[in-house]
From TrEMBL:
The lineage of its organism: Bacteria, Bacillati, Actinomycetota, Actinomycetes, Micrococcales. One of its GO terms (cellular component) is cytoplasm. InterPro entries: Aromatic_Lyase, Fumarase/histidase_N, HutH, L-Aspartase-like, Phe/His_NH3-lyase_AS. GO terms for molecular function: histidine ammonia-lyase activity. Gene3D superfamilies: Fumarase/aspartase (Central domain), Fumarase/aspartase (N-terminal domain). It is found in: Cytoplasm. This is Histidine ammonia-lyase. Its EC number is 4.3.1.3.
Length: 511
């Protein structure tokens, strides 16, 4: 890790996959150089924020040299004030990796040993326990970052490499890591950042990349199972409205539906339905709009990944300057925008599922895809589950970033609520995963019930793989367990891998 920051893919690898981190010699040298500036200011009789003063509304309070170590320690202890359920390990690891990346820029003025301690904790798989509530998304993700700093000090609780909750002091001792005593400005530098919300944005974008492909494939499978038409996805029609995401989704659906025996059979027998319902016909337009929203939010993430967020910050020409770069508005807006897109994507998926279950709209399939309608209920209540999730996603789509609440004696009188936007987006993505999984289950069942008609190659491959964990049509079974199997089929990327493999075998391209 150098002063060039991290990519989103690297953040995910560290956060989720336990990738090791290393700080370059150039970054360590740069940190040493800027630390000399902080040390020189520590002896200055003029007050400098974070070096010789209190914090927030107490910024005018001068702190004498003999109390400054206590000042930094007290800052971290008092700000480690989160509450609620523990945040996921991957989020905390991503947060720490991003704070380390900022430290490595040399713009924060901390000693190299501080960055090395963060790297040591990450590489030892020691993860501070952070409560869900405590960040307003301004002045940085203060409470979450303070819990991370507290662990480096050897205080608070952590999850160790075995997954056990232990004291930070015992975890550090077991890993051979010395607790860190913070010097001037270092406590402040460890908590002033947008790292928590940025980590969650990086993880969300990674997950949505896979889910958008699943959504395109699920929609194509629904078109096959509902005897729809693929003519509306023709490239020349899509090019009349040249949104990039729409073009990708339409191309994916064309690839899945290429040479579909089901569609070909109905073309040859005088298929008369001129237009499908919007949830089928307009899938590339909605899915594509989600893709374009992701492109915008990815740009926001990339800019933030290339930033050095701290207050005050050491400028390249050696000045220590206060600033407002810690405000989370850019990320808060992006996170909220994604939650809106996720809710709409799930809403369209649920509508396609519902069409399968209604004999007035499913073109010859059993009511609710039941094996023996009346005796069996089929997927009736699976759609209820989808509907409940979709309604929750609509509530989660209400923006967090339109809210603000004053804090710190009105010094921090406008905040971003970006952390809250990130937390609800994670719940939204979980909901979307479940909704799409139920659509895939339902489309697969509908296609199977049209036997001996056969689907296209990619749909057939997905169904065959799904059938290794979820049985085909038959009398009613315990449905919740099958839904969870389908959710894991989607969540783990297993479905995506099947799609890519089948696409390669048919010389198709699915993105």
């Amino acid at each position: 890790m150098g002063d060039g920051g991290l990519t989103a893919a690297q953040v995910v690898a560290i956060a989720r996959d336990g990738a090791r981190v290393r700080i370059t010699d150039e970054a360590l040298d740069g940190m040493s150089a800027t630390r000399h500036i902080i040390d020189s200011l520590a002896d200055d009789t003029t007050a400098h924020y974070g070096v010789s003063t209190g914090f927030g509304a107490l910024a005018t309070t001068y702190i004498s040299p003999e109390l400054r170590v206590q000042l930094q320690r007290s800052l971290v202890r008092s700000h480690a004030a989160s509450s609620g359920p523990a945040v996921e390990i991957e989020v905390v690891r991503g947060t720490m990796a991003l704070r380390l990346a900022t430290l490595a820029t040399g713009r924060t003025g901390v000693r190299p040993i501080v960055a090395q301690r963060y790297a040591a904790l990450l590489n030892a798989a020691i993860t501070p326990i952070v409560g869900e509530y405590g960040s307003l998304g301004c002045s940085g993700d203060l409470a979450p970052l303070a819990h991370c700093a507290l662990a480096v000090m050897g205080e608070g609780d952590v999850v160790d490499s075995s997954g056990s909750v232990v004291s930070a002091s015992s975890a550090l001792a077991a890993a051979g890591i010395e607790p860190l005593e913070l010097h001037e400005k270092e406590g402040l530098a460890l908590i002033n950042g947008t790292d928590g919300m940025l980590a969650m944005l990086c993880l969300a974008l990674h997950d949505l990349d896979g889910l958008l492909t699943v959504a395109d494939v699920a929609a194509a499978m629904s078109i096959e199972g509902l005897q729809g038409t693929d003519r509306v996805f023709a490239a020349d029609l899509q090019a009349l409205r040249p949104h990039p995401g729409q073009a990708v989704s339409a191309a994916n659906m064309r690839a899945v539906l290429a040479d579909s025996p089901i569609i070909a059979a109905h073309k040859s027998t005088g298929f008369t339905r001129v237009q499908d319902a919007y949830s089928l016909r307009c899938a590339p337009q909605v899915h594509g709009a989600v893709r374009d929203t992701m492109s915008h939010t990815r740009l926001v993430a990339e800019r933030e990944l290339g930033s050095a967020i701290d207050n005050p910050v050491v400028t390249p020409d050696g000045r220590l300057e206060s600033n407002g770069n810690f405000h989370g508005a850019p990320l808060g807006y992006a996170l909220d925008f994604l939650a809106i897109a996720v809710a709409d994507l799930a809403s369209m998926s649920e509508r396609r599922t519902d069409r399968f279950l209604d004999p007035a709209r499913n073109h010859g399939l059993n009511a609710f895809l039941a094996f023996n309608p009346g005796v069996d209920s089929g997927h009736m209540i699976a759609q209820y589950t989808q509907a409940g999730i979709v309604s929750e996603l609509k509530r989660l789509a209400v923006p967090a970033s339109v809210d603000s609440i004053p804090s710190s004696a009105m010094q921090e009188d406008h905040v971003s609520m970006g952390w809250s936007a990130a937390r609800k987006l994670r719940r939204s993505i979980d909901g979307l995963t479940r909704v799409l999984a139920i659509e895939v289950m339902t489309a697969a069942r509908g296609i199977d019930m049209r036997s001996p008609e056969q689907p296209a190659a990619i749909s057939a491959a997905v169904i065959a793989e799904l059938r290794t964990v979820v049985d085909g049509p038959g009398p009613d079974r315990f449905l919740a367990a099958e839904i969870e199997q389908a959710v894991e089929f989607v969540r783990t990327g297993r479905m995506g891998r099947v799609v890519r493999r089948a696409a390669a075998e048919t010389d198709a391209a699915v993105r």
